[in-house]
Amino acid sequence: EQRRERPMKAFWRRIRQPLARSRFVKNFLASLMAAALRFIERTNRRVEGSHDVEGTVDKLSPLIIALWHGQHLLAPAIKPRRQPLVALFSRSADAELNALVAEKMDIQVVRGSGGRQQKNSAQKGGAAALIQLKRAIDAGSNAAMIADIPHGTPREAGLGVVTLARISGRPVVPMAIATSRRKVLERTWDKTAINLPFGRCAVIMGEPIHVAVDADENEMERKRQEVTDALNLATRRAYALVDGTSSNRGRDTR
Prior knowledge:
Shape: globular
Helix content: 40-55%
């Protein structure tokens, strides 16, 4: 069996870089992925207790939606339809395809790193990316960010999303998405959940978290932990709803 795998791996190594450089191939794959996300979203019935995304965004817009790595794959298909949305994607080659998918789903894309502390993220385009996001928010767009740092501690928010809230004056709203049918990639650092069709879906949006424009270092750390706790709570609630383990089913109808 190992002998059969080696030629395939060698073949993939030979074609991977040419494929990655092909704009046609990337656009084709992005179109397929966008269609798949729409199909998965449409075939997963929203469970009782799932929150009204449109209503929450309408009430708080412009807002900053925070999500976890590995739990966000279905988010482009659940984005608010009546409100514009700009999303931050890493500058890495791995994120390029995801950014193309987002664009095909009517999401404006900003490339950069927004998760780390400012002194580090400035070196990775993070400061410039946050400025672009702020400008979009000032123009009336909502923003979406992955809160935890790539290949850092999973489900631990970085300072990027808190910094954006401070400089924009707009609240962070934690958002969690879960489906009853899913494939969890256990060996990935963030335990990526691949959402599958024909199941149940829950979307939970936490209470808005405001950050004062004059927040000092201690306050920023407190808000970072608040985002972490709120997003983890939303994630637990979303999975409890789709897995049938929630004791609060039907109580929260926001």
